[in-house]
Amino acid sequence: MELQPISGGWALIAMALKNLTIFTMVIIVVAYATLAERRVSAFIQDRRGPNRVGPFGLLQPIADGIKNILKEETLPATASRFFFVLAPILVLIPSLVTFAVIPIAAPLPTPVGVVDMIIADVPIGILYVLAFSSLAVYGVVLGGWASNNKYAFLGGLRASAQMVSYEVALGLSLIAVLMLTGNVTLTEMVWQQQQLGMWYAFPLSLAFILFVISAFAETNRLPFDMAEAESELVTGYHTEYSAMKFSAFMIGEFGHMVTASALMATIFLGGWDLPGTWDNAFWYQGQLIGGFAADGSVILAQPAVWKTLLTFMGFAGKTGFFLLLFIWIRWTLPRFRYDQVMALGWKVLLPTALAYIMLIGGSILVLDEIGVRWGFGYGLALTAISGVSTFAFVFFMDRGRTITGAAAQRSQKVEIKTIPQALAGADPAPAGD
Amino acid sequence: MAISVKVMHRPAPETTSYLRAALSGMALTFKHMINPVKVTQQYPEEQTDLSPRWRGTHVMETHADGRPKCVACGLCPTVCPANCIRLVGGEDDQGNRYPIVYEIDEFRCIFCGMCQEVCPVEAIHVGRHFENAEYTRDRFVYDLDRLMEQDHPSTLLWDPSDPSSE
Hints:
With 433 residues, chain A is mainly α.
């Protein structure tokens, strides 16, 4: 049987089903990410975390949801009503719609045709993601401004500056990926990683590091949570929000986290790709192919339901790893100072990303010129180049201390100064008047 | 007395490593994350043992026939520093004194235990119990019947010859 993409009325039904399942799934993952955050933070602090609602506290997100819906909505008297209500919506929607272009599994064969496991395989792919993720900053800024509260306003200001700055580093670290892929769709990125025989985290290791750092800043997570900074700004831009509007901000933040995790998994860890060539599948000139033979002819892919399920689990595992990383780092590292965040973004990440683009661009040019075939050897050569540059980056960032160890342990002396009693007992105020 | 000041000589920022410190910090938090030993006490199921001298909710001791042991001498309202005991004494036809009204306001009580110490007939006690939540404030004024109903153990008095209660 010739494998054909699903078409006609079945395509509409498949699209509706995919929309429903994927967005429901994202919402559920977001709900459970809040639980995971509380549980993991508890484990890190040797506590148990919420474990009362349902087995292992698994019904806690539902309890939280009911609580937030039933709570009273407050509207500050001096707030700008329209923008105050608009802001949570503007944060929530971009964080969820971004998921539409991320492929979640290998194509699923059905009796009426092959279904791609992606909502919208749009040709602009990653550009769509960048466009929508940068819309979220409007929600944060509007929320801070419309509240008419100085702390919320400061939080919104900081968030806008930070998100705009790190968007630059984020976009530039992606350029190397786009150069290597030769396309901006995420399905093609997964395909090229399958063809390369290794995930982009290895041949583009420095881009991976820059992207992860920028993603942390973009999602406003610690150690870059300038927008919230609860010890300085109460809770930043959502200080004045309560009940479901606050919840919308939280869902937006976690939705951002989930999307960023899925994106990092797709771009740098091969998406739904699992080791081996058995799961490779890509639409090439109207055919679902699994690879190219040595003479250039195509090998047809053999999609199967179990392959779809297995690759989906692989994708979920990679996304889950990044989610755990987000939470784990949040409960380990303290917050950066605001000027440090800005300095890191503009003075370190931006020049590094630019230099890396030059390096990878030059390497790709040289490798193509000397006729290295696209494949594992190509990947190894780039891995070596990126490995050296990553090492250099880390070495210079930490001034060589990463290898030799920080001076902190050696030179931190504690001195006990004793002030003589006569001095200590003397009245410090000038006597006389 | 001389004053000691601890002076920390922190290393200059040019000589420290952020990355190494961050990674070792993450290793530490990971170790705690997978550590099965947790400090949380699962409260309603697991209860801490209260000290034998814990002073909590009051108990009124009764005779075998159900009468309160209290003889309405008036010492406990007198000694009470928080003034939370209301006592109206009466006398029956045999001349035995008994409390007509005996109320303790658990909100005003500071749980000093002096009522128990001063009681000549060992009738009023503070008890080893603290879970006395209620839905309304007026439920916190315990009357005589309620004080007699309390079934938790009463507090051990401090014994000067055995200061650590062994």
